[in-house]
């Protein structure tokens, strides 16, 4: 993931040359190990993402040291040569992996996934993937997007942007410092100022928009600057023979630094406020290791980290970083199943093998034998040509996927009025096999449950959560004074019912208020875990603040109706009593919803839809076009009890009722992935919009029956 132009041989001095930095190569090995382990086994190493921060500090150190050396020797930086070396070093492997991943995705993934991957591969090829992800991160629907094969290129994009600007900054500061008496102090002050400004901005943006802050380049500059400060102050801080106890201090710094990096990888998780000030832990740890230098006492970790396997892993770290993620993303579709424990080990082995081959046949030749003796202009020109070729391939994939989706959307529209369309096929004996191959494939975002509806806009007095406005008003009253006021509240599993509730709202001239937050229960209890992953305090507070604000607004508004739905099967709550989830939900639901009903509001809980078990997905359907039953699930496994719906039933109140459409997904002992020519699911977690549309008659009938 980072430049490896620094030598990484023996930690001892060889002749009169500078010391080789096997300790830095070991840092690379550690960093890539943390990242890969986090992606393969996130529950075991929840904070392994800090490996990226380790890479950033190393990059800042090595590149600054290289550039300052050139400035001191020649009083200038040959920018053309610098950028040409970076291009030869980094681009061949990056372009190869991106293109190979795109072609594999075209073979094994459905059109909607290929469309997203094609677009993101364009961004990755142009090294703006971090900004693409930052833009998506602030969009609610992006929480449910499936990862692309190049999502991990965000860090490469940050580094390339750093490489583009950093030489210019150093050159400018050096020219300014040359006019003063203390050029080193000016340089250190400038780097410190840049780093401090970036750190403050990182803390601020992490607090206000954490997802965006994770990917934005300005929030990461300070990590590079820390490495740059070390290079500018002294290449090895403990190398002076006159410094008493220098080896002992070096050994202590090395153990402390590695300990900080490993501890952050073990302790941090998705709830950690990161990058922000928490990123200082792995950054400081990395800085201590680099500052300590390669010389150390016998009890330091350097001897252990200098062993051949560690150094080899460091050597292939860049290629391993590139390959491991697309292997993880693509292998389930290639193998036709969710990766098990053995499969994950196989994915790791495959990634290492691909990395080793890429290092030997692409990385090394690219750096040493690609365009030998060519001028920087020619190297950069050929780089541009190679980049354009990959972009053309991406454009072709995007065009093909877009055309396929357009054709499927037209076919879908033509079928929508048919009496055997989707769930309607379950009510008519005239329909052929309702569970046969679908007439249309999944058409991507057109089937997503999150969409902007005509007649809906942000509420003039929205519910605020940070900078998010979490209340939408859909006024279909047409000026009628007796229009009923209705609320739809919940998470993304409530949002998937918009396609059925909005037509009902238009038909009945409702004034509909919609407030939805992905992954948040609407009850007043902490969410302790989501889909098996522990939840920290930041997410808990967000959910509690939102649910309290919504409840207050419902009490103040006293609406006629409230629709509720949530992924309560996947949301674990903890009220501190240690009782079962069913018991906790019963109490929490009554405490939250009871006061709404007490003031005359009718409450309808929509029973949650069956789980896909990562089986009834578009990917599975793409692999089994002629046998969709291979993607079906047993009802006993796919339809566990819904704690929220069970809590509503247990109250036995006529003003709190349940709408249950489970039989439209599981009409017998099986829950199907295709019904009435349609994909039932949009992704691994949500129902496709067209299938919900086919449920509109059933939803209206059961709503009327529940309210009678």
Would you mind describing this structure in some detail?
The longest helix is centred in the middle third of the chain and has 40 residues, at 376-415. Strand 7 (526-530) and strand 8 form a beta hairpin. This protein has 25 helices and 16 strands. The N and C termini lie far apart (63 Å). It has a seven-stranded mixed beta sheet with strand order 1-4-6-5-9-11-13, sandwiched between helices. A three-stranded antiparallel beta sheet has the order 8-7-10. It has a two-stranded antiparallel sheet with strand order 2-3. The model is unreliable at 5-18 and 138-144 (pLDDT under 50). It has 708 residues and is an alpha/beta fold.
Layout of helices and strands, plus pairs?
Layout: H1 22-40, H2 51-74, H3 79-108, H4 111-125, H5 129-137, H6 153-177, H7 183-208, H8 210-215, H9 221-233, H10 246-267, H11 280-292, H12 302-305, H13 308-315, H14 317-335, H15 341-368, H16 376-415, E1 456-458, E2 464-465, E3 468-469, E4 472-475, E5 485-490, H17 492-495, H18 498-508, E6 511-516, E7 526-530, E8 533-534, H19 537-557, E9 561-565, E10 571-574, H20 581-598, E11 602-606, H21 618-623, E12 633-634, H22 635-638, H23 643-651, E13 656-659, E14 670-671, E15 674-675, E16 678-679, H24 689-694, H25 696-707
Parallel strand pairs: 5-6, 5-9, 9-11, 11-13
Antiparallel strand pairs: 1-4, 2-3, 4-6, 7-8, 7-10, 12-14, 15-16
* Stretches with pLDDT under 50, minimum 5 residues: 5-18, 138-144
Cα shape: globular
Helix fraction?
55-70%
Query: Helices and strands: which structural class?
Result: alpha/beta
Radius of gyration: 29 Å
Q: Total helix count?
A: 25
What value does the average pLDDT take?
88
Distance separating the two termini: 63 Å
How many strand elements? 16
The largest beta-sheet arranges its strands as: 1-4-6-5-9-11-13
Oligomeric assembly: single chain
Beta fraction: 5-15%
Question: Main sheet?
Answer: 7 strands, mixed
């Amino acid at each position: 993931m980072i430049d490896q132009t620094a030598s990484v041989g023996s930690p001892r001095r060889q002749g009169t040359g500078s010391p080789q930095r096997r300790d830095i190569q070991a840092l690379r090995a550690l960093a890539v190990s943390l990242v890969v382990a986090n992606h393969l086994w996130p529950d075991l190493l929840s904070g392994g993402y800090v490996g990226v921060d380790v890479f950033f500090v190393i990059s800042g150190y090595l590149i600054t040291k290289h550039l300052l050396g050139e400035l001191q020797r020649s009083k200038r930086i040959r920018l053309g040569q610098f950028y040409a070396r970076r291009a030869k070093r980094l681009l061949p492997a990056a372009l190869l992996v991106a293109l190979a991943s795109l072609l594999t995705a075209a073979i094994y993934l459905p059109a909607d996934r290929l469309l997203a991957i094609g677009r993101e591969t364009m961004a990755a090829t142009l090294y703006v993937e971090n900004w693409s992800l930052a833009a998506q991160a602030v969009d609610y629907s992006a929480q449910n997007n499936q990862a692309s094969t190049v999502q991990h290129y965000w860090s490469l994009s940050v580094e390339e942007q750093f490489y583009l600007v950093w030489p210019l900054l150093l050159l400018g500061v050096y020219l300014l410092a040359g006019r003063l008496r203390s050029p080193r102090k000016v340089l250190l002050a400038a780097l410190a100022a840049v780093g401090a400004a970036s750190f403050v901005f990182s803390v601020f943006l992490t607090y206000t928009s954490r997802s965006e802050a994770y990917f934005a380049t300005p929030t990461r500059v300070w990590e590079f600057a820390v490495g740059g400060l070390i290079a500018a102050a002294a290449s090895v801080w403990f190398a002076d023979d006159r410094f008493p106890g220098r080896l002992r201090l070096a050994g202590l710094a090395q153990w402390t630094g590695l300990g900080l990096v490993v501890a952050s990888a073990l302790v941090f998780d998705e709830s950690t406020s990161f990058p922000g000030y928490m990123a200082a832990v792995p950054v400081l740890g990395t800085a201590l290791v680099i500052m300590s230098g390669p010389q150390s006492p016998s009890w330091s970790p350097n001897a252990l980290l200098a062993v051949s396997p560690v150094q080899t892993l460091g050597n292939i770290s860049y290629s391993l970083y590139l390959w491991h993620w697309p292997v993880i993303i693509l292998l389930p579709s290639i193998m036709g199943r969710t990766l098990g424990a053995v499969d994950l080990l196989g994915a790791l082995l495959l990634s290492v093998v691909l990395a080793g081959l890429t290092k030997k046949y692409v990385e090394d030749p690219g750096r040493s034998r690609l365009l030998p003796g060519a001028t920087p202009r020619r190297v950069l020109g050929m780089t541009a040509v190679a980049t354009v070729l990959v972009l053309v391939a991406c454009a072709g994939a995007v065009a093909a996927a877009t055309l396929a989706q357009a054709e499927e959307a037209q076919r879908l529209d033509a079928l929508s009025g048919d009496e055997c369309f989707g769930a309607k096929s379950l009510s008519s004996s005239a329909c052929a096999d309702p569970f046969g191959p679908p007439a249309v494939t999944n058409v991507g975002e057109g089937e997503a449950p999150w969409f902007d509806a005509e007649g809906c806009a942000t509420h003039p007095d929205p519910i605020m959560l940070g900078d998010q406005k979490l209340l939408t008003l859909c006024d279909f009253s047409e000026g009628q004074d007796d229009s009923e006021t209705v609320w739809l509240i919940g998470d993304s599993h409530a949002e998937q019912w918009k396609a059925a509730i909005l037509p009902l709202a238009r038909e009945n001239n409702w004034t509909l208020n919609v407030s939805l937050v992905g992954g948040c229960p609407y009850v007043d209890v902490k969410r302790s875990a989501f889909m098996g992953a522990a939840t920290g305090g930041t997410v808990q507070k967000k959910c509690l603040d939102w649910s309290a604000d919504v409840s207050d607004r419902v009490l103040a508004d006293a609406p006629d109706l409230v629709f509720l739905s949530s992924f309560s099967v996947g949301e674990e709550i903890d009220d501190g009593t240690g009782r079962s989830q069913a018991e906790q939900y019963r109490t929490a639901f009554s405490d939250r919803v009871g006061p709404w009903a007490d003031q005359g509001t009718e409450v309808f809980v929509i029973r949650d839809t069956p789980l896909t078990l990562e089986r009834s997905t578009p990917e599975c359907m793409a692999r089994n076009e002629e046998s969709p039953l291979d993607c079906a699930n047993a009802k006993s496994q796919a339809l566990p009890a819904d704690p929220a719906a069970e809590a509503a039933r247990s109250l036995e109140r006529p003003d709190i009722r349940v709408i249950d459409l489970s039989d439209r997904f599981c009409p017998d002992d099986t829950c199907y992935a295709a019904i009435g020519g349609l994909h039932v699911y949009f992704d691994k977690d949500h129902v496709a919009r067209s299938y919900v549309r086919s449920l509109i008659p059933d939803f209206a009938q059961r709503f009327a029956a529940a309210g009678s």
